[in-house]
Design brief:
Elements lengths: L4 H4 L2 H22 L6 H13 L5 H8 L3 H13 L3 E6 L2 E9 L1 H20 L6 H17 L3
Antiparallel strand pairs: 1-2
């Protein structure tokens, strides 16, 4: 393995380039659909959609892998666009309940079919075994950096 050090020295760069290509594909699609949205806004909007009645700011922070301040700022932007509302859960004044508005649901309806296609594009020309190995390798790389 040590003789391959030159090949792996750019692993971070390679991962970053691939991630940028994926993000660029999403941003181009948002632009084609005339939706003014960032990747981060899409991730949170979609997560609110997935969680439905149970969507809370606390749960979004927990599952989004972003800090509370960043997540709060993105949620504020979604609220300012009129795509979500932020209220308190009935009987629990500590948690913020996040709900899609009609406008937010129309964004989901417009973007989601294309987002699904973009996700599927990632695995084009990969068989199940290759994809399983890919995920295993990514998991191992992530574990290698865990404290």
């Amino acid at each position: 393995m040590l003789n391959q050090i030159d090949k792996i020295s750019g692993i971070g760069l390679h991962l970053d380039l691939v991630l940028r290509k994926i993000q660029d594909a999403y941003l181009r699609k948002f632009d084609e659909l005339a939706v003014d949205m960032t990747i981060e806004q899409w991730v949170i909007l979609h997560r609110i959609f997935e969680l439905g009645e149970e969507a809370s700011q606390r749960e979004i922070v927990r599952t989004n892998f972003r800090n509370r301040a960043t997540t709060s700022r993105i949620i504020g932007r979604l609220e300012n666009k009129g795509w979500i509302t932020k209220t308190r859960f009935e009987g629990d004044q500590k948690r913020f309940k996040l709900e899609l508005t009609g406008k937010g649901q129309s964004i989901i309806d417009r973007v989601l079919p294309f987002a699904v296609k973009l996700r599927k594009k990632a695995i084009d020309n990969l068989n199940v075994l290759e994809f399983d190995i890919f995920l295993k390798v990514l998991d191992q790389i992530g574990q290698n950096y865990s404290p």
